[in-house]
Amino acid sequence: MFSDIIGWLSDEPILAAFFSISMNIAAAITGFLPSAFITAGTVAAFDLKMGLILLIIGEAAGAIISFILYRKGITALTSSFPQLKNNKLFSKLQNAEGPAAYFMVVLLRVLPFVPSGAVTLAAAYSRMRLLPFGIASTIGKIPALLIEAFAVSHALKLKMELQIAIFLFTAFSFLVYYLLKKYKLS
User: Which ranges carry the VTT domain (predicted)?
Assistant: First the structure.
């Protein structure tokens, strides 16, 4: 089924590009959907270079749109829950601005284990403006996208059996991690 979708998208490059960018925006807005499958599909439908360009555009658009939506949501949330304004962490985030906020976003985007949604939420709550956030977010995300796209492009060249084994091992590892965390066995 996955190969059928990739085949169809490869035959319709403009629709495929739009689909990839739209999926990245959706993943950014939700803040928790993994983008690895989007990366895999984009790199499979296009070559590594064009796929990477589309992924960067999608990530940048997703970060900017989610920043705007999160900021509107935070305004509504803080007016509904005034006690949030007294929270130390939210106060610190709210006062971040200028180069410090810019470099904080770049650094947090480069780090692979920091959820993108958390970075966007923190930036949306700060005094940071949209344009510096968009630039910092995009610059910070490029190294991570390069690594992810390169790894995916090489993984797609592996035999199907090995790809399935890697997928199953990864899924099993996440399941074990989740269960250990849920039942505090670690």
Answer: 33-153
| 103 neighbors 136 (Cβ within 8 angstroms) | yes
Model confidence pLDDT, tens digit, residues 59-85: 999 999 999 998 888 777 666 656 656
Residue 2 has pLDDT above 60, yes or no: no
pTM above 0.85, yes or no: no
Q: Cβ neighbours of residue 118 under 8 Å, at least 6 residues apart?
A: 31
- Measuring CA to CA, which residue among 97, 94, 137 is closest to residue 114? 137
Q: Which of 31, 57, 22 is nearest to 121 (CA)?
A: 31
Q: How far is CA 164 from the centre of its chain?
A: 24
> What six digits make up the tokens of 166?
């890697």
| Helices (H), ranges, 31-157 | 36-45, 48-80, 88-95, 98-110, 116-125, 130-155
- In degrees, rounded to 5, the angle at the alpha carbon of residue 61 between the alpha carbons of residues 84 and 136 is 65
Span 28-61, pLDDT tens digits: 988 777 777 888 888 888 888 999 999 999 999 9
Are the beta carbons of 79 and 177 closer than 8 angstroms?
A: no
- Residue 81, pLDDT score: 57
Q: Could you give the CA distance from residue 148 to residue 186 in angstroms, rounded to a whole number?
A: 28
Rounded distance between C-alpha atoms, residue 148 and residue 153, angstroms: 9
Specify the DSSP class assigned to residue 85. Answer: G
Q: Which two tokens stand for residue 64?
A: 């900017």
